[in-house]
Design a protein that fits this description.
about 5% strand; mainly alpha; 3-stranded antiparallel sheet; about 160 residues; single chain
Length: about 160
Amino acid sequence: MSADERPLHYRSPVVETMTSLLTVWWSPQFQRDIVGDDGRDLSTIEIRMLWTLGSQGPSRGAELAEALSASAPSVSKAAAKLHRAGLVTREPSPSDQRSHTLHLTASGRAVAQRLYDVGDEMVTEIFASWPGADVEALSGLLERFASDSQQYARRLRRTRGE
């Protein structure tokens, strides 16, 4: 293998590890596997939409497309399927009458909560053999890392004038 063909890696082990973790967690196969029967009729984007609506609350399609790095037509198609399944309602957006805001229904909220429960069960299983102090330390460090990352993202947006 020539030098031009060798895999590239980050110099930072933190970035390398986080990228590896995100690659696993965001893979469509992993998302289908983790939700199992709870999401058997849902596509990956529909699962992610339910998670996002559960955590961020009602959102317009354009906001969901941006949050999910998905195309507007993909989000629209998924929203229509979730609406037909009775998991979301579509209401005219108060700020833009040409668009709709998606809201979880009671059934949609129950499905989204089950998706969150599956994530909690996964982490509980992964941490089962970890000492409690390690879990607590990791949780604190990840909270700090997430907060600092959000601040960094806000600074990037400001420097671009967004």
